[in-house]
Amino acid sequence: MANDTRSADGTRVRRRAAVVAAALGGCALVAASTTPAAAHPAGPGRDVRYVALGDSYTSGPGIPGQVDANCARSDHNYPTLVAAQRQVTAFTDASCSGATTAEMWQAQGTNKPQLDAVGRATDLVTVQIGGNDVGFGPIISTCAHLAAQDPTGNPCERSYQAPGYDQLTLAIVRTAPKVDRVLRAVHARAPHARVLVVGYPDLLPDDGSGCFPQVPFARKDFAYLRDTEKRLNLMLRVVAGLNRAEYVDTYSPTIGHDMCKAPADRWIEPLQPAAPAAPAHPNAQGEQAMARAVLTRLDEGHRHG
Q: Which residues are catalytic?
């Protein structure tokens, strides 16, 4: 029986990986990108126990006030704003800067395994994870370094495609089963909870233009990196759909407020931030924008559930 179970799990994982790979090739978006909202106990006027899981885009490093030095967690990140707006009964923010899917099951400094915060009484879970599994930090460092060699070309794209395939697309495909496992674990621990997978906001100009040296990437690499983020968000959307979770699009509502914009207009700080935030991360306005996207999704699900 154990062998049969492992075999079935392996078949399921392979099938889901195939769906994700097809979606990244543009073939399965319509089939798997949306999830009908079920009737969940997260509507206005109900007792709601909310748990937030995620990485630094969730925790809000650098944004005042910082309430957890180990995780660089702000009390003005989007989960806290959502919790305040919804007037939830109980709120646990387990997000932690630097987290990967592995930290759902293992401690990160003083932060317990994030999934420990999820239990049978949990009504609402938001999950924003996968960027560090793909390698957000190393990608930024690599592309900034290569830009000096060819500032008007696409040295970063050429480097990641040197093996004859796109290494970043492969990294996204390989991250899909990890996110899948996280969502299955959330459902197992909180079978009645409403689960929202939160995508990543628009980091670079959506039109593919650049802003060297403010953001030190080569001119033609901006479009490549924009497309890479869109593939990551597409993967999250598809995996959410495969796991009875809802996807929250934070990219569309943040277009026009990327790290290339003027300080007054941007919601994502560049590699040398002007507002309190980590480099290449949302500032307070960015967290507010993601909170609005989550609240909109919650309201839509309540109306249509």
A: 56, 281
What is the Cα Rg of the chain in Å? 19
Is residue 196 within 8 Å of residue 297, measured between CB atoms? yes
**Sign of the CA dihedral with 75 first, then 77, 80, and 81 last:** positive
Of 56, 34, 65, 63, the residue nearest 197 (C-alpha): 34
The pLDDT tens digits of the residues spanning 209-262 come to: 999 999 999 999 999 999 999 999 999 999 999 999 999 999 999 999 999 999
- How far apart, in whole angstroms, are the C-alpha atoms of residue 250 and residue 179? 18
Long-range CB contact pairs, 21-24, < 8 A, 24+: 21/173, 23/234, 23/235, 23/238, 24/169, 24/172, 24/173, 24/231, 24/234, 24/235
Q: What is the layout of strands, in order, in the sheet containing 246-248?
A: 90-93, 49-54, 124-128, 194-198, 246-248
Model pLDDT for residues 42-76, shown as the tens digit of each residue: 454 468 999 999 999 999 999 999 999 999 999 99
Q: What count of other Cβ atoms lies within 10 Å of the Cβ of residue 49?
A: 20
| Phi then psi dihedrals of residue 127, to 5 deg | -130, 125
The one-letter amino acid at 261: K
